[in-house]
Each structure stands twice: as C-alpha cells, then as structure tokens.
Amino acid sequence: MSMRRLSVRHIIYAIVGLLAAASCRRVPLYDASSNIYLELQLKLNLELTVSDTIDLSNYPQYYNKVHLKSPERLAACFYDVSTHQLVAKEFVGPTGGYITSVPSGTYDILVYELGTLVTQVDKNDSRDLFKARTSDITQSVSTKFLSKATKADANTDPVISEPDHLIVARLADVFIPDHADIDETVVIHADGQSSVETYSFLVRNVKGIEQVSTVQALISGQAGSKFLWDGHNPTTTVNVLTSAVADHTRKCFYGVYNTFGRIGGKVYLNFLVTTLTGDEQVFPVDVTDRIDTLDNVISIDSLIIPPLSEKPYEGYNPTVDDWDDEVIDVPIK
User: How far is CA 104 from CA 29, 77, 217, 235, in A?
Assistant: First the structure.
C-alpha cells in the first residue's frame, strides 16, 4: 500500500511539473543575450509648486499628477532616419532593457509608456504622425453646464477627457552596431519625462461656498492631442474637463489638472458649480495671463457665489390666482 501511495504522489508531482512548465515562458524583456542595452532614466517628480492649501495626501488623484508612478512597461520604437517609418519595436522595463531584434543601422528612437488609463496613442508606425490623445466626452457633460460655459466663454469646442501622464523619451540619429561585432555591452542612454503639462489652481475667498455641493472645472483653449516626436499640437482647440475640490472650511476651490498644452487665444477656467438645491451654475474666470507663468500655478483671489435661487429648478412652474367674483343672472320661468 505504501509503494502505491508513493507512485501516485510521484505521478501528481509530475503532472504539476508539466503544467508549471507549460504555463511558464521566457519573456525577452530583460534578455541579457544581447550586447546592446537601452538605459532609461525617468523623471517621476514634477517641479510643480503646489500651495499648502491643496492637500495632496488626501487626494491621491492629485498626488499622482505631481508624483508619477513608475511605469511597468515601455515600448521602444526604432524609426528609419530617412523615411521616418517604424523598423522595429522592443519592450523594456522602467530602467531599460536589452535590445535584441533591431538590425544594424542608424535610427531615431522614441520610447513611450504603456498601460495608461485615459491617454491613447495613434499611428506609431510613423514617427511624424505618432500622437497622444484622449476621448471626446462632450455628450457626457451636462447640457445646462455646457450651454452656460460656452455662452460665457464664447466657444463651442468639444470637451475631452483630461489626459493622464504619458512618459516619453527621444533619441535622434542613434547607430546600432551589428551584434556579432560587439565585444562589450553598448549602453544607449535616454531621459524620459511626461509629455503632458500639469497645472495647479487655487481660488481663495469663495463667498457663498456654503451653498456649493460639488464643483468641476472646464478649461478652454486647450490642445486635443500632441505629436510625440517633436511635441507640437494640432490647431483645433478643445475644452478639458477636470475635477475640483470645494473646501468649505478654508472657503476655497482647488485642483490639479493635466493638459496637452494651450493653443493660443483666451483661456478660461470655468467653474461648474452644483448648489445644494441642485441648480447648475457656471463661473468663468479669464486666466490667460496666469497660464503664461513659469511655475504652472493659477491663483485667483476671490469668487462670489450668489444667493441660492428660491426655485429649486428651472422650467414650467404654474401658479393659481384667486377666483374673481362672477354674477350670472339665471332667468326663472
């Protein structure tokens, strides 16, 4: 009986071993068989001055815009320097990886982060057409908010999702030698940083903030996408929707937002306020001059929320007046 139990156990171990072997595969992410290593140094902490009023520790969505999380995986695209078309793509980790499949030649290299939640990339087969973008969310914004914001801002541009950070590194005219001709490891160094811009905003002395239930911000005059090789923006302007905090204790609005950049003209920070009665109001502030500052900090001294309307909603509101006396003679035959 003991010999039989032993053989069954060995059979079970053998089956488990075969299944484990079948489920494991070698990923060439850190394959040291190559003598060419792409070394990455990523800038994860932004040089953005944030007021002490903005409590980053209580709002991780803001903290992560200032202190970036290290990406788990990046793609390195190798482009022909003459045609600017994609020749090869390698996948590396946050500190880099070995290059194994790229033939000898001179390339422009663009490395970009994978796995972003909101920001999407298009046309990475062409160096000059490769761009980052987000989705059009115009239909998801309250029509009342949008009509009031565009009336105040005099624009009918679409609304896009706020982009999240997309780390990018670029190298031009890099020579990749033939692997057979290398005796020692060749290290190619590249510095990476986010391809979007980050701003903080703070509105002090919000009079009537006790009437505010929630607040969002809509930033006009923004770019809807960005080309990743040279960093230029298309000319079509959009509105970027972002979150904001109504701090009743300190009587202020604040937030941190990302954008692909400003395209010129006026820039309005429209505060979309929902009051305690459910009323939706828009308070536009011209921040064009504040956007041009080097510290990316938008500071607004005061804002007034007018007293709540007596009507909790707009629309058909019928009333009934008192009846008037009316005398009718009724003939009696």
Answer: 20, 15, 50, 38
